[in-house]
Specification:
By secondary structure, the protein is of the alpha/beta class. The protein is 45% helix and 15% strand. The strands form two sheets. A seven-stranded parallel beta sheet has the order 3-2-1-4-5-6-7. Strands 10-9-8-11-12-13 form a six-stranded parallel beta sheet, with helices on both faces. Helix 1 crosses helix 17, helix 9 packs across helix 12 and helix 13 packs across helix 16.
């Protein structure tokens, strides 16, 4: 089978780049009976795929030099690059389908944030708003008219595709994403402390990692944390500050928690496992997620997660995470208080929960995701 993959997203956002890197890596390794055409605007991008970077023997692939991604243009011109190659299937790993594509076209949809919460992504600038609305309109049409199959990264994303975009359920396959092997417990406490020091973190802490957009719901987290102030733990809000982070820092100061709430900024990929492993709990209050990497990454490091009961997050946390209503500050504060009570007063129960977290995280692996994705491709090509 001759399979094309659009890997141009490898140089963009962490979430989409991570999925594209890992799923392409697994497809190349598991699909050695097939030939892959990797459409990229830069040879350097391919070096981000582990199997390619390591020179794994027996891979069959070729890079197809392609202009950088401009989806509105690609709706109409990208097909010209495909028809010369006699491909059996084309795979879009990054939410974008094209109006003109192969009959066997597969797209992975990670979330429907633009349709579910348009105020979070639609610009107020008139010209940009017009471009965005055109983009989302064309995308909705392309999902319906071009995609032979849609891979949803969670049951919740599948439900949104059916309920919001009206797509037939039998065209959607749920394949969960995986967790990289680098996310694992760290027994070297000195290494954890060195990494904490790098980001000006000291002492015991609760960790939030992610964006500071309104739907991430961090303002409510600050207020809930303020209700549990007697525990002497710090709250670490990690992520690129931007205007949202500046606003939240001001709120923390207004609540009298300027010294207790820390903003270390963006955590480098290689440091993330140690920062997760050093936390007492991960706290994740998001109102909407397509999958939810941070809770699973934390659990893979042995750190229990206190998370929102909304959207796809219960699929990630299963019966291992501790849940709260993300729109109810008192409920969130209650979940924090119960969790901290276990940590402070019942270490046996806390350590048992940590072990269950490791078991839960093992259910989500990139080899499993890659195998299911390849089997889907092979079924479509028959």
């Amino acid at each position: 089978m001759r399979i094309g993959i659009d890997v141009r997203v490898l140089s963009t956002s962490r979430a989409l780049s991570r999925y594209t890197k890992n799923i392409t890596d697994q497809l190349l390794i598991k699909g050695r009976d097939h030939f892959f055409y990797l459409f990229s605007d830069s040879p350097a991008n391919l070096a981000k795929i582990p199997a390619v970077a390591s020179g794994v023997a027996g891979l069959h692939y070729e890079m197809i030099k392609t202009p950088r991604k401009m989806v509105i243009r690609d709706h109409f011109l990208f097909y010209d690059s495909l028809k010369k190659l006699n491909l059996d299937l084309f795979f879009h790993p990054d939410n974008t389908e094209f109006l003109r594509c192969l009959p066997n076209s597969v797209v992975t949809v990670h979330d429907l944030l633009p349709w579910k919460m348009p105020a979070e992504v639609i610009s107020r600038e008139p010209l940009m708003q017009l471009r965005q609305k055109l983009y989302f309109s064309l995308q909705s049409r392309a999902f319906r008219e071009s995609s032979r199959k849609i891979i949803a990264v969670s049951e919740n994303t599948k439900k949104d595709l059916v309920n919001i975009l009206g797509l037939p359920p039998d065209t959607i396959e749920v394949i969960y994403e995986g967790i990289e092997e680098s996310f694992r417990p760290c027994a070297d406490q000195n290494l954890i402390e060195e990494t904490k020091k790098k980001y000006n973190i000291s002492g015991a802490y609760l960790l939030y990692i992610g964006g500071f957009e309104p739907y991430k719901n961090v303002e409510r987290l600050l207020k809930a944390f303020g209700q549990t102030y007697s525990h002497n733990l710090k709250l670490v809000l990690a992520g690129k500050r931007g205007s949202g982070g500046v606003r939240l820092k001001k709120i923390a100061e207004e609540l009298g928690m300027g010294e207790t709430v820390l903003f270390p900024g963006f955590i480098e990929e290689e440091d993330l496992p140690k920062i997760y492993a050093g936390a007492v709990f991960l706290i994740y209050p998001s109102l909407y997620e397509g999958f939810g990497f941070p809770p699973l990454e934390a659990m893979a490091c042995g750190t229990p997660a206190i998370i929102s009961n909304s959207s796809s997050l219960p699929e990630a946390g299963g019966d291992t995470a501790i849940y709260f209503d993300p729109e109810n500050i008192n409920n969130m504060a209650g979940a924090l208080q119960i969790s901290l009570k276990h940590y402070l007063n019942n270490r046996v129960e806390y350590e048992a929960l940590s072990r269950r977290c490791l078991d839960r995280a093992r259910l989500f692996s990139w080899p499993a995701a890659g195998g299911k994705t390849l089997r889907l491709f092979e079924q479509l090509a028959k």
